[in-house]
Amino acid sequence: MMMKIGLMCPMKEEAEFIAKQLERPHRLKLLGTQVQEGMWHNFHCIVMQSGLGKVAAAAGTQALIDTCQVGAVFVVGLAGALDPALRIGDIVIADELIQHDLDVRPLFDYTVIPDLGLKSIETDRSLRQAAFSAAEELAKKRFPTLFSEEVKTRFGLLIPQVKVGPVLTGDQFVSGDGTGRLRQLFPKALCVEMEGAAAAQVCLMNSVPLAVLRVISDRADHKAQFDFTGFLNEVAGKYGFALLDLLLSRHLSEDFREDYRPSGRQR
Ligand code: ADE
Hints:
The protein has helices spanning 12-19, 54-66, 125-146, 149-155, 177-185, 196-205, 224-251, and strands at residues 4-9, 23-30, 33-40, 43-49, 70-81, 91-99, 121-122, 162-169, 191-193, 210-218. By secondary structure, it is α/β, with parallel strands linked by helices. It starts with a strand and ends in a 16-residue tail after the last helix.
């Protein structure tokens, strides 16, 4: 089956960098946010800047599915590390996503989505495998030339580790005090962000496959906001671009290719 691919970034800095790579770009008016449609490595892509948080991610994902008819969604963005072995610049591919702020106790267990009866939502196996092999290739081949020595030194960037595991989502920027609690409650969680599980829930409800790729921007500690902001401004766009560039050029199945025909409402 051939289909369109939704590339969703919470932040403008990443979405703009990625949208610049599209050939024959075409702007869509959708939810009053930045959405660009075009071709990238012969894949028909829709790049959306969803905005931060679960509501924005859920609305954005549903709009990608309904208005743009995407058949797969990749969420690409930053995350705060929970696993102490993760360093800034490492890459996490989610195998499951958990809403750490969803608490309907005593009616349901902590993090259970009542109507679905699920504590977590799994990502699509083949999409996450494609994402993993793209991230591994980035680490092994692309990373050395991706950033200047000055940027690598300033951010302490080393050849990234690539890890697959559980990712937490919630409507909070986690820094300092909240981190220990999350580590205790979710000892296997690799990192925390603000959109993935919401996009995953919407994708599940629509039977659309999803993968979530996160680059560690901070350690969810007292310095998180400074690390996050610097990383976002100077590193994130290039990282997100390189990941998707490798994913689309070498790792995603040919089944997702399609002739480019602009869709949706036009500005
Ligand atoms: N995204 C990047 N860093 C984060 C943090 N510390 N908390 C939540 N989302 C994040």
